[in-house]
Amino acid sequence: MTEWARPDWWDFAACRGRHDLVELFVPPAGIDTGQNRRGIHQMVPPELAHMCNVCPVADICYTEGQHDRYAIRGGTTAQHRETERRRGKRLHVRSI
User: Fold this and answer.
1) Average pLDDT over residues 32-57
2) In the chain, what is the straight-line distance between the N-terminal and C-terminal CA atoms, in Å?
3) N or C: which end of the chain has fewer CB within 10 A?
4) Which residues have CB under 8 Å from 57's CB, separation 6+?
5) pLDDT reading at 44 higher than 90
6) What stretches of 1-96 show up as alpha helix (H) in DSSP?
């Protein structure tokens, strides 16, 4: 089994250490997989949107989270990233 290594940029993330927000960033594990789980985050909650907007590493978080099917990454939902990926677009995190 390969151990996950935390990326260096994570130390600078605005959400670092905010364990109280985990359920907002990532849907609870008990939720069914597939479309239902991906569709949970239709919009980024305002508190997270603000945090991502001022985060110094939001762009790299977004880039590295391109294929994350569940979590909010770089101020975008998994559903939003998937839609934009299908359209061949690159979102600009600061404009969301």
Assistant:
1) 73
2) 37
3) N
4) 9, 10, 12, 13, 14
5) no
6) 22-25, 35-38, 46-54, 58-64, 78-87
